[in-house]
Amino acid sequence: MSRYFLIIFLLCICSVSALLSACSETAGRHKITDYVSDEKDARAIAEDYFLEKTHRKIETYSITSGKQEIDYWAFFFEGTGEFERPGYHWIVKVNKQTGKPEIIWGE
Is 4 in contact with 63 (CB distance < 8 Å)? Predict the structure, then answer.
């Protein structure tokens, strides 16, 4: 009986470890960190998040650094070329403390 308990216990530990590892990442190549102090890193997180939320359907766009606040980095995304039209703009904010992105959709 104790051998089965040990196997189940080890499987549970592996499952929790895999789940925690998967939850610590944002879409793409960047991990959510405790603190984002570099605008370059924040911009990369914002771009990954923008691409995820638009399902990579916006193929050409520009990125401009927006007004920087104490608690977040802000980036303005705008469709260009065939994607340049009313409503094809977004603001992505990246929290400086957590690295968590947030998107505001254009209208």
Answer: no
- The token pair at 27 is 């879409």
Encoded amino acid at 93, one letter: K
Q: How far is CA 85 from CA 18, 62, 75, 76, 96, in A?
A: 42, 13, 19, 15, 31
Q: Which residues are within 8 A (CB) of 95 and not within 5 positions of it... i.e. 6 or more apart?
A: 36, 71, 72, 101, 102
In tens, the pLDDT along 36-77 reads 888 999 999 999 999 999 999 999 999 999 878 899 999 999
What residue ranges define each of the domains in the chain, with the CATH number in brackets? Answer: 2-105 (3.30.160)
For residue 44, what pLDDT is reported?
96
Residues 6 or more apart whose CB falls under 8 angstroms from that of 52 comprise 26, 27, 28
At 72, list the tokens. 């977040």
What was the pLDDT predicted at 4?
A: 57
pTM for the structure as a whole: 0.67
And the tokens for 5? Answer: 């308990």
